[in-house]
Description:
Blueprint: E1 7-10, E2 16-24, E3 38-46, E4 57-64, E5 69-71, E6 75-77, E7 83-87, H1 111-118
Parallel strand pairs: 1-7
Antiparallel strand pairs: 1-2, 2-3, 3-4, 4-7, 5-6
Amino acid sequence: MIRVKTRLIIKDNSGIQIAKCIKILGTSNKKYAKLGNLIICTVVKKNVKKIKMKKNIFLVFITQTKKYNKRRGNVYIKGNSNNAIILNEEKRFNSTRTYGRVPVEFLRNKISNFWQYINGVY
């Protein structure tokens, strides 16, 4: 579960290494973000050689959390850290490569289902 002020490790090649949650998208009184939710983050640490940023606030998609997440069939998954992927304004990947695990729920049939999940079709 991700709360406001939680630090996330960014698992893509955008040049940002650590981000901090400043807003959880959804209803106005939402306190926690879970696996697959969208949040708004600000940059804490970045690789200066890779990126020259014009802004410090990004939309982020959560791919892994330290808290247990329930799957179908009463199976629980847990990650070692809180990981995320940075998205742009059109809710598309900001980078060309992601590192680490992406849950099978987002890659069920093809990658197109993953795009539809991010765009809010599901």
